[in-house]
Design goal:
The chain has four domains: 75 residues, Ubiquitin-like (UB roll); 142 residues, Alpha-Beta Plaits (2-Layer Sandwich), CATH 3.30.70; 176 residues, Rossmann fold; 119 residues, Dimethylsulfoxide Reductase, domain 2, CATH 3.40.228.10. The chain is built from 19 helices and 28 strands.
Amino acid sequence: MIAPKKISITINGQVCEGEQGQTILEIARANNIYIPTLCYMKGLTPWGGCRLCIVEVEGNPKVVPSCATPAVDGTKITTHNDRLVALRKATLELLFSERNHICPICPYNKGDCGLQHQGLAHGITGIRYPYLYPALPVDVTGRYFGIDHNRCILCTRCIRTCDEIEGVHTLDVSSRGIKNQIVVDMNTTFGASDTCTQCGACVVSCPTGALFDKAAAFRGQWTSSVQILTTCTECPVGCGLKVHTKENRIVNVWGDPDSPVNTGHLCVKGRYQTWAEPRDRITTPLIKGQPATWDEALAAIKKAAKVKKAEKALLVAPRVTNETAAAIAGVAGKFGQTAMFVGANEAALCAEPSFTGDALRKLQDADAIIVLGAQPTRDNGVVASRIRVAVRKRGAKLLIFHARKSELDRHADVAANVVSLESKLWNKVKAALAGAQRPAIVYGPNAMTPIGVTVMERLIAIFEANTGGSEPLLIGLPVSANALAMSRAGIPAVEEVGPWLDAKPLKFLHIVVGDALDGGAGLLEEKYVPALLERIDCLVVQASYKSALTDKASVVLPATIWCEKTGTVTNLEGRELPLRPVVTVAGEARDDKAILESVYA
């Protein structure tokens, strides 16, 4: 790979080094020279529409947008003088006059937005132009966020984010001139959209209060909130979170831009479902549905656990910390059987845990992507966004082998919902993969079925025959968070809990659900499980949220949730990622590890 040519430009009399292809703004920021921006956002294609980043280039009578102007070796740049400041102030005044930017009734928390910050920085206390006072629609049909067109400055950051980061292009601009407006799909609403993934990236990118989170609206300024970095535990990807808290409550969750896993992007699970959904929390121990003290609950458990080892069992959800996994492995010898419960066909995927280092970056760079037996749009939204961007923006081939149809099918060169051995299908597959230099196979639990194994064997044979290509990058994609690390700790996985419970007569069962969002209710959906649980003398459920399962329990132990935990989790790349508490523990809830050790250590 040829290294970029080095160039040198002078900005405000300061000599600045850069690389050929960089813009004036990029080199200025790399040398700690401030240029104001609104429509610019790092990681997006520059647009140059707001004209706030204008600069003067020696020898050019016109001002140019620094975000969209490539730097030329030897040029001299001026970023601030009376002319530039006057032009920027005029631009800001026009923006303020065109729409309704009234802070006291804005959901974006009283002046804490990019537009108001620039107005303050430029000393604007009033404007010279008449206000237009538009009466544009407000769309609040989306589940988690809405858009107030009266506050939109048409910077298109939301459009570019939706297109270039999430990869769906739900948003665009309609009409012309003063009638310009952001539209959803073909001029529908967020609630009626069939392309919006509810990831909320558009909201994060908005420099005004036009796009806003419903759960975060009117909760106070970001500048007065505490920001803590932690890790999402909703799936094995392990995205970095930047959690905003105020007065010991979460007021918003954004992605951590410095995370090597997700670089700031999140899916709907990490962005909203962990905090913006109301749930019935368990904050005190319960004995037969009645509140009890921890001493009473622990005494009841220890008394009930005085049965033969073969009559005791421990069943665990995989979404616990590495430290809790070690504690489970440590107490497993006190039970006749111990296991973690996972989804269909996931046990085989976890049986021999393997991690793919730097998987998401390599996936983004792949020129052919095969999704086998996985549903990333449903289970791993950030992985799905990387796939869409690779296909839509870089022309990567996409082949999908899965019985269930998904949103990714529309982008696929081959979408085989029914897999056959006919040569017609496999000739098409060979043609799509011909010449692939950086292929990647993303395989999920259903790749472990007989059909999935057959498909994998045929794919590998195709790659072996393609002597001009490379071996495919293999990325295992389980559904359950931290399942691979749990398996590595020696805890076996079970898919069908019914046969596992029925293998030996049980008198005592401890189920660690942790902060699973359904409170463990999914276990009751399996045939025979409810009846088998009724036969057990003492059922202990360790959970954060009330559910039909906790209603059945003899003793319920309140567990901490993701934003109260300390410890680590291991993602699909093998990275050990930190969990940091962002709020104090609710009520009398305790950490999963501490609970297990207090009962069985």
